[in-house]
Design a protein that fits this description.
Number of domains of chain B: 1
Strand content of chain B: 5-15%
Strand order of the largest sheet of chain A: 3-2-4-5-7-6-12
Largest sheet of chain B: 6 strands, parallel
Distance between the termini of chain B: 42 Å
Order of helices and strands of chain A: EHEHEHEHHEHEHEEEEHEEHEHEHH
Number of helices of chain A: 12
Number of strands of chain A: 14
Bound molecules: thiamine diphosphate, magnesium ion
Distance between the termini of chain A: 40 Å
Low-confidence stretches of chain B: 248-252
Number of strands of chain B: 8
Structural class of chain A: alpha/beta
Oligomer: heterotetramer
Number of domains of chain A: 2
CATH architecture of chain B: 3-Layer(aba) Sandwich
Shape of chain A: globular
Chain lengths: ~325, ~325, ~325, ~325
């Protein structure tokens, strides 16, 4: 019987294995200790590794990441948790001006084995200050690696790679995915950064979908298939490094691309991915890359408004159908 | 400044209102009538009520996501409050803010905030505005023991002291930040000690004793009105329920829960008012029943209110 | 004789006029008082308006913006200075989670008349932590307005609009432009947000150039003109709101677009502008929009490396010539 | 712990080295040999030199952009230091960091930092690493009066106290943050008072008196080695020159400048060593001349070194 884990369990297991492997790894954050994290991701780690290595911190996002950097440049791989991604706003200097730059501006004298884990808690009714998916900011910061897994298998393989990596990694989890279980082998494995996963093959349109949008895109692809349209679904898995080769190869085949993310549309990573596709595959494109993303407005607490803000399956399907409607080349 | 009988009765009434509002908030959340988080102020009622009793018109207050108590103490309407929790069009923030952003600026309640600590410098700016206007008004900022660790708290202390602002910082030390006990988060036994590093008064009081809260607040407010600058009041209290209606901490249940229930500020104050001859047992019961009925009405109003129309998605973003 | 002012003088004059007009306006920041700001932009304001309204602050970027928000929601238009844009990392919560969102999540109960001014000090040898142009982050935050003037005339008109605006405005100045003088009338004027300026007309290629890149693009256009290529140069002036109509109209005419900014390429606003052009003018495009921007690496202190990192006139010229080389449609 | 004669002579030598290094830094900047900023440590030499004298191998230090003094005190090579300022390939950071990022990790000098306050929590993490390793090593963090206002300073104080870290926080109060006098930025008369809010020792000393600095540092270092946790040392000092070689503040010139020059820590220490019989006047002059010559050599090395090749643009970004 193949074993199934949730993303929360998979990240937990990945961290656990790496902390067993490397006694230098230290985990820090708010409520990560005995409590096991507000979403349960660090459950049991305090019991196994003790309070020295699994450290509950005061509400000090800036200092938490700052301390983790201090550990990292001392040769101790550090995992810092920011409880909700929205709170990374308090740790921006540490991440952007320190973690991403110190190796460079010290001329390579230090390694920066730092993982900052943070959950995006969108679509749960938490409102404007607890729902943001801010990956676009970090994709714009040279020196950072940015990871956004969409399932348990990837989450485990990628968190292990992140912990072993000597560079700073921002590891963005999605709370709405925590519960979904997928198969995770017992045997150890890692997943390299910079390799997109083709989740489904198809000839008609390429859907590039990030994190929680990847499973949604697969559902949309099912729906499209019933209409005779075969979508290829690609999950980039890491935004930095970004595997454009896989994406471009697909678009060269399909001639059409839809980028889907949870974050607000304007200035989101969809723009970057779309533009890179356009730069590299312009002659193959039947029409402009279409973006499916959140409305550009703060997230309201009201369920009605929240629902209207975020992209849904219908929006993805319609984006894929828009090529036909616009009659750009027609759908094969 | 002794309180009139009527003022004391109002305080008791507000405490009950908060208590039943929070029970309704938890119940409605449990029934799935709204999602997201709600952070009950149960067992902490005496703090907001006691502090607000020391204020006068033109004074302002700001609070955290655990801010329903401050909202009601400042005179917030329970109906529009519960409607806000439920994300309804009739909510005090049109359903856009929800539980963590409850606010009624018209009452001087300048807002609850879901980012721990973020409202502390904002409160500093509100106090600065009062000072610039040459009023003798003050601003109160409520926040938790956890929040007292955030850098912005200290930055605000320094600026408020430098500029001698009429700012009352009320740290509600309920011993926990989600799961983290204050002893693992704050390196000094009393958070009020922090004020020493900034050279302004810091006091620790029992936050479940509404009279003590009122006395400390009055003292701080008077000083601030007279240009004496900021005060840090640490109200030691307990968090009776879980951190929020959706996340459970490992405390407050079982025998511990019983211990905490014994420190419930409401029966204590009720007994005090009876022993002072201000209320009879019968009147006390009536006040509770009235509060309960008011909240029942409010809940009905909230449940029956319409959801916002989709137009609201992008309104209120820009002026 | 028309009067010429530097950008520093123009911003100063704009603030001065608005502070005279509205006694509620308060200015706060580090070294903004008697000293007049590290780049001299607030010179003389303390003398005229006094220490109550022109407030020197301790090194507290987070609290400076937080206090300014408190003033703003109390009805006092506040201007907060962040001394270098890189330090906005300490004030991200205030800007992103508070200033941009409070009006919305309080259901419109408050106005947010806040201006955060900040200089980008790139190309001056200040190194990785003092050279960043981070506008892309803020274009991604619904609720913020983002302004990037490229000359003194615009700077004055836009800062006045910003101060009168009831919404939060991030006003990004460029230190390398501070010295350049341009004509500024004595008579009062304001410039509305959301109106791009066509700096030069041309039929062959559209160059969209931000802030300090606008004058550089004009020089590149001169060089191109000598080669018979007529570039239209557009300066968006405000990124949010963004005047895409003007840009799209130009690209429909030229069929070719080059976006130029100082910030790092990946995840920069060039991606957003390029993608919006592609979405709206795909059928007019001879080839993909070309981006000219900084190399994706931290900014080295070494002058040699710094020079190689930033876009220069040659890069803009070459981008415009690339359409010919790629033989996409040919240059008219 | 009394210092040997040799140690005292080394301290004097280092102070001169710093002084001439800074003069060279200013001169080379003036000659246009590098752009950007450089923040002289002139008149503050006694602080870095006195503190570092209390350290042993395995101890670490971090500093600000005004960090050339700490770099040299920790044993940094003046040649590779000046080459770094000039952005040369031979610079200790390959020319990528420049004046504000001077650092030599191999010496335990974990880096200068251009963001005011940012390195304070990083220093906390370095100290945590030492604690986790079970060593008795300590970490010193140098920063300014201005930096002591940043939220991260307080957050670090709290965490360092909670975790009992071997962290020595050395605030160099030179009275100014660019243009802002400390009295307009810090609401208490002594920055060391801040430590009271965190329950650990804070002391104020004359930072121009190398012996006093050494004594305070030794005390703090000993406590930290024995598991006694952090200390805040406020070294009161002056900033002799302008804030940086490129931006001018309105002080330090004219008659005020004369006053400051009279408090120059180097002649003072020189005189002390002569009066203690450790050095003769002739030897003193020789030490100064030697330092000057060493810096002249270093400057020549720096000027004659090649610029980095363009390949370096994207190396050292990732491992
Ligand atoms: C900046 C920030 N960090 C973390 C959180 C998550 N969080 C919400 S409430 C809370 C605990 C706060 O504790 P305290 O300040 O004591 O207030 P209490 O909940 O006890 O009223 C935490 C960690 C947050 N909302 N904002
Ligand atoms: C976060 C941040 N804010 C502002 C600055 C700009 N700045 C550089 S040095 C300085 C003054 C710092 O004063 P202090 O900490 O006393 O150090 P000193 O320069 O006196 O050594 C300022 C405001 C900065 N580099 N980083
Ligand atoms: Mg608490
Ligand atoms: Mg100073």
């Amino acid at each position: 019987m193949p074993r199934e884990l949730s993303i929360a369990q998979a990240v937990n297991e990945g961290i656990r294995e790496e902390m067993r492997r490397d006694p230098n790894v230290v985990l820090m954050g708010e409520d990560v200790g005995e409590y096991g994290g507000v979403f349960g991701v660090t459950r049991g780690l305090h019991a196994e590794f003790g309070g020295e290595r699994v450290r509950d911190c005061p509400l000090n996002e800036a200092a938490i990441v700052g301390f983790a950097i201090g550990l990292a440049i001392s040769g101790k791989p550090a995992i810092a948790e920011i409880e909700f991604m929205d709170f990374v706003t308090f740790a921006m200097d540490a991440l952007v001006n320190q973690a991403a730059k110190l190796r460079y501006c010290y001329g390579g004298q230090v390694d920066m084995p730092l993982v900052v884990r943070t959950p995006v808690a969108a679509q749960l009714g938490f409102g404007s200050q607890h729902s943001q998916s801010l990956e676009a900011w970090f994709m714009h910061v040279p020196g950072l690696k940015v990871v956004m897994p969409s399932n348990a298998y990837d989450a485990k393989g990628l968190i292990k790679t992140a912990i072993r990596d000597r560079d700073p990694v921002l590891f963005i989890e999605n709370v709405s995915l925590y519960g979904t279980k997928t198969e995770v082998p017992e045997d150890e494995y890692t997943i390299p950064f910079g390799q997109a996963a083709v989740r489904r093959e198809g000839d008609d349109v390429t859907i590039i979908a990030l994190s929680s949008m990847a499973p949604l895109a697969l559902k949309a692809a099912d729906e499209l298939a019933r209409q005779g349209i075969h979508a290829e679904v690609i999950d980039p898995r890491t935004l930095a490094p970004l595997d454009m080769d896989t994406i471009v190869a697909s678009v060269e085949k399909t001639g059409r691309a839809v980028v889907v993310h949870l974050a607000h549309k304007t200035g989101g990573v969809g723009a970057e991915i779309a533009q890179q596709i356009t730069e590299r595959a312009f002659d193959y494109l039947d029409g402009p890359v279409v973006r499916v993303a959140s409305v550009d407005a703060p997230v309201a607490a009201s369920g009605t408004l929240e629902k209207a803000l975020y992209p849904d399956q219908r929006a993805i399907v319609e984006a894929c159908l828009s090529f036909r409607r616009a009659d750009v080349g027609g759908v094969r | 400044m002794t309180l009139t009988n009527q003022q004391q009765i109002t305080m008791l009434r507000k405490m009950w209102l908060i208590r039943y509002f929070e029970e309704a908030a938890i119940r409605l959340n449990g029934e799935g009538l709204y999602r997201g988080s709600t952070h009950p102020y149960i067992a902490q009622e005496a703090t907001a009520v006691g502090v607000v009793a020391a204020l006068k018109p033109g004074d302002k207050a700001l609070a955290t996501y655990r801010g329903h108590g401050a909202y009601l103490a400042m005179g917030g309407d329970p109906s529009r409050g519960l409607a806000e929790l439920l994300g309804k069009e009739t909510g005090v923030c049109k359903g856009k803010g929800g539980s963590m952003h409850l606010s009624d600026v018209s009452l001087g309640f300048m807002g609850s905030n879901a980012i721990v600590g973020a409202h502390i410098p904002i409160a500093g700016g509100v106090a600065l505005s009062q000072q610039l206007d040459g009023t003798d008004n003050v601003t109160v900022c409520f926040f938790g023991d956890g929040a007292s660790c955030e850098g912005v708290f200290y930055e605000t202390c320094n600026m408020a002291a430098l500029w001698n602002l009429p700012l009352i910082l009320v740290v509600e030390n309920n011993e926990f930040a989600i799961s983290t006990h204050v002893s693992k988060a704050v390196c000094v036994p009393d958070i009020s000690i922090r004020a020493q590093g900034f050279g302004f008064p810091g006091v620790t009081i029992d936050g479940r004793e509404v009279d003590a809260v009122y006395a400390a607040a009055t003292d701080a407010v008077q000083r601030a009105r007279q240009g004496g600058g900021p005060t840090l009041i640490e109200a030691k209290t307990v968090r009776w329920t879980r951190h929020s209606a959706v996340s459970a901490g490992g405390y407050g249940s079982g025998s511990d829960g019983e211990k905490w229930r014994q420190t419930d500020p409401i029966p204590r104050y009720q007994a005090a008012l009876v022993s002072r001859g201000i209320l009879t047992d019968v009147e006390v019961t009536a006040i509770e029943a009235e509060a309960r009925a008011a909240i029942d009405d409010a809940a009905r109003f909230a449940v029956n209110s319409p959801a916002p129309s989709l137009d609201a998605l992008t309104t209120d973003m820009f002026a």
